[in-house]
Amino acid sequence: MFSEKKQRTATVEPGTAQNRINEGTKINGDVSSTGFFRIDGEIRGDVTTPSKIVLGKTGVIIGTLTCENADIEGKIKGNLKIAGTLSLKSTAYIEGDVEVGKLAVEPGATLNASCIMKGKQPKNISASQNVNPEAEKTHPFDRQQRLKKVPESSQNG
C-alpha cells in the first residue's frame, strides 16, 4: 500500500519562477519555459510558455510567440498565438499574424498584422447564421413592409 509509487502525469502548468533576458543579450534559437518571461534583449527563434510574457521597450522577438497573456512594449516580427489577452503599449511594433483571445491596443502602437480573435462562440451562433437576407434589407419603419405583414382581412376593416 505505501510502497506503491504513483505515476504523475506530466502537465504543463504555469510556474511561479520568473525568467529574465536582459538588454544586450541576444539568443539565437527557441526558448521554452513554464514560467513568466520578461524580455528586454533579442530572441531570434520561437518563444513558448503557458504563462505571461512581458516584452520591454528594448525587447525584440523575431519568430513565433506562444503564451497565455502578453504585454508588449517592444518589437515582434513573426506570429503571435496568445490564448488570453494581448496588450500592446504605445511603443509596441507588431508585424506578422496574430491570434488572440482579447486585444488591448494603446494609441501609438503599430499593428501591421492579420488578426484573428479566438473567443467563446455564442450559444445561438447557428440561429444568427440563418438570418433571412430579405429581412436584413427592410427597415423597421418602412410602411410598405409593415402592410405586407398585416393580414388582408384586417386592412379592409
TrEMBL record:
Q: Which family does it belong to?
A: Belongs to the bactofilin family.
The record's region (Disordered) falls at: 1-25, 121-157
Q: What name appears for this protein in its UniProt entry?
A: Polymer-forming cytoskeletal protein
Against InterPro entries, the record matches this protein to: BacA/B
Q: Where is the composition biased (Basic and acidic residues)?
A: 134-151
Mark out the compositionally biased spans (Polar residues): 123-132
Q: Taxonomic classification, please?
A: Bacteria, Pseudomonadati, Bacteroidota, Flavobacteriia, Flavobacteriales
